[in-house]
Design a protein that fits this description.
heterodimer, A: 162 residues, Alpha-D-Glucose-1,6-Bisphosphate, Chain A, domain 4, 40% strand, B: 2 domains, 7-stranded mixed β-sheet, 46% helix, disordered N terminus
Chain lengths: 162, 333
């Protein structure tokens, strides 16, 4: 099952990237996440691992994931090591006016296939889509409010100097 | 104990001759038709012996098959099989029972642990399905997880399926073996007594005084993690455990059955025994995993078994009361 949601964030790609590249932030904006723990030495970049779980229906599903693509400030992708088969990607593209279109793609599959696998992928899709949408909205809010705080702080500093 | 029945062949030969002749027959004493009668008798005896042989073989095979099903072969657990069958469990848990398992984080991250649950929902016991699902998705199918079940459950047609999910027959030895293997082991001390309690006792912890789980945890020095569940007793209407009926039919001695429940359940209506497959009502099920209890840390080097039992059932009752208070309507939750 492949799902995709997007949002336009009123900040340039480098600002959005700096927020996404700090993996500790994911617990703050990813909706439905019930666990997001570092696993291993690497905290960012290719090879960084997280033990993650997301609530879907009656279960918390997920497993160990690893960052497999780290193309600053354009693409960040992860893939599952254990647990359900999954692959996620943040795709950042400038859209003018200093804004960024952030696309979150999420691909997952349950083991075994068959009718029950096919059914459970489809039954779970609306809830996961909703979580992806909420995650992007929260990301937008957090990045923009952080930017506003920085701009306000800079303006305050300028005023103080003057 | 009842005496073993006398074999049919012994009765037909020895009984007949002893009664008529008063000893072993001699050929010269016999009437002309005795030869024919003897031939028929021999043929009949042979047929009986063949029949007995076939029956004995079939019974022997059945007994061996049953014994094999009840053996604790921990290696029967198959993580790949579990992984492939989780979608079915997930669909049942999510759509039918709207099941929810809270606070799995209270289970220690690794090592052997004894999960002690209250048993609900009769022989279909939905919590075993969705708790196994929740545990397997939370910790991964790689973490060893076994559940102890009544012999009858493993002897049922579902037995082979359950064994691959890690279910083993409920016995002290099997639990020890599983804990020795570093597994998380789920036990239901209340067993058939608790699982068939009347529906209006849904929010009551009733282990029937069974304290074996405390001895087990102490023997292996593993933490106890209580798991309370509500909703299972609403998947049918249990009227009575039928303990008196089980005793009357001597099932308590012959099949380790302390109860023979009387319930109303679709599609059968009034049912006795809960042996037939039935359609469980889609009751909202909720489980809560409580903080781990480290017995020697909390109760000293030589804990009093009764004290531990009272403590564990006490905290479980308190948590179950909380879950019961959240429910507004039967079945709907």
């Amino acid at each position: 099952m492949r799902l995709s949601e997007s949002v336009v964030v009123g900040s340039p790609p480098r600002v959005v990237w700096s927020y996404l590249a700090d993996l500790d932030n994911y617990g703050r904006f990813m909706s439905g996440i019930t666990r997001w723990d570092a696993d291993g030495e690497a905290t960012s970049g290719i090879g960084a691992r997280r033990r993650m779980l997301i609530k879907v229906g009656s279960a918390e599903v997920g497993g160990l994931i690893e960052m497999v693509e780290w193309d600053e400030p354009n693409d960040l992708a992860w893939s599952s090591v254990t647990g359900i088969d999954q692959r996620g990607r943040f795709r950042l593209r400038p859209v003018g006016n200093g804004s960024t279109r952030v696309e979150l793609r999420y691909q997952y599959g349950v083991a075994g296939g068959g009718l029950t696998g096919w059914l459970s992928e489809r039954v779970s899709a609306p809830s996961i889509s909703k979580d992806l949408r909420l995650s992007l909205q929260q990301l937008k809010r957090l990045v923009e409010s952080e930017r506003q705080e920085r701009v306000a702080a800079a303006a305050e500093a300028e005023r103080a100097e003057a | 104990m009842a005496s073993a029945p006398k074999p049919v062949s012994d009765v037909s030969t020895n009984g007949h001759h002893a009664a008529t002749n008063g000893g072993a027959p001699k050929i010269s004493d016999r009437a002309p038709l005795d030869g024919l009668a003897e031939s028929v008798g021999r043929a009949t005896g042979e047929a009986v012996r063949i029949g007995q042989g076939l029956l004995g073989k079939a019974a022997g095979n059945a007994a061996r098959s049953l014994a094999k099903r009840l053996q604790a072969d921990l290696d029967d657990r198959d993580p790949d099989y579990i992984r492939e069958n989780l979608p079915l469990s997930w669909l049942m848990a999510t759509i039918w029972y709207r099941a929810e398992v809270r606070n799995l984080k209270n289970v220690p991250e690794d090592g052997a642990v004894l999960l002690v649950g209250n048993h609900t929902g009769g022989n279909m016991s939905p919590e075993t399905i969705f708790f196994t699902l929740a545990f397997s998705t939370y910790f991964g199918v790689e973490r060893r997880f076994h559940q102890l079940a009544h012999n009858l459950v493993l002897a049922s047609p579902l037995g082979p399926f359950l064994r691959r999910f890690g279910t083993v027959a409920a016995s002290h030895e099997n639990a020890l073996a599983a804990l020795d293997a570093g597994a998380a082991v789920l036990v239901f001390p209340g067993g058939d007594w608790e699982v068939h309690r009347p529906s209006w006792q849904s929010s009551k912890i009733d282990f029937g005084g069974r304290r074996g789980f405390v001895r087990l945890a102490l023997e292996k020095d593993v933490p106890i993690v209580p798991v309370v569940t509500i909703g299972g007793q609403e998947t049918a209407l249990w009227l009575d455990r039928g303990a008196w009926l089980a005793k009357l039919l001597r099932l308590d001695r012959t099949a380790r059955l302390k109860v023979l429940p009387i319930l109303i359940a679709p599609p059968w209506g009034l049912t006795i025994g809960d042996f037939l497959p039935r359609i469980p009502l889609p009751a909202k099920m909720t489980s809560d995993v409580l903080p781990a209890i480290h017995l020697r840390e909390q109760f000293g080097e030589e804990p009093d078994i009764d004290e531990v039992y009272e403590h564990v059932t006490g905290v479980m009752q308190e948590a179950l009361d909380g879950l019961a208070a959240e429910r507004r309507y039967p079945v709907i939750g």
